[in-house]
C-alpha cells in the first residue's frame, strides 16, 4: 500500500511541477510577445521611456 501512496505523491508532484513550469512558460511567452510588439512599433510608444 505504501508504494502506491508514494507513487501517487510522485505523480502529484510531477503534475504540480509541470503546471508551474507551464504557467511560467506562458507568462514568459506573453511577456516576450508584448516586448516584441513594443520593439517593432517605436512610434506607438513616445511617452514611455524604459
From TrEMBL:
<feature type="transmembrane region" description="Helical">
    <location>
        <begin position="12"/>
        <end position="34"/>
    </location>
</feature>
<keyword id="KW-0812">Transmembrane</keyword>
<keyword id="KW-1133">Transmembrane helix</keyword>
<protein>
    <submittedName>
        <fullName>Uncharacterized protein</fullName>
    </submittedName>
</protein>
<keyword id="KW-0472">Membrane</keyword>
Amino acid at each position: 500500500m505504501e508504494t502506491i501512496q508514494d507513487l501517487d505523491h510522485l505523480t502529484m508532484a510531477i503534475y504540480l511541477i509541470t503546471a508551474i513550469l507551464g504557467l511560467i512558460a506562458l507568462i514568459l511567452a506573453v511577456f516576450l510577445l508584448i516586448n516584441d510588439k513594443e520593439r517593432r512599433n517605436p512610434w506607438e510608444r513616445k511617452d514611455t521611456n524604459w
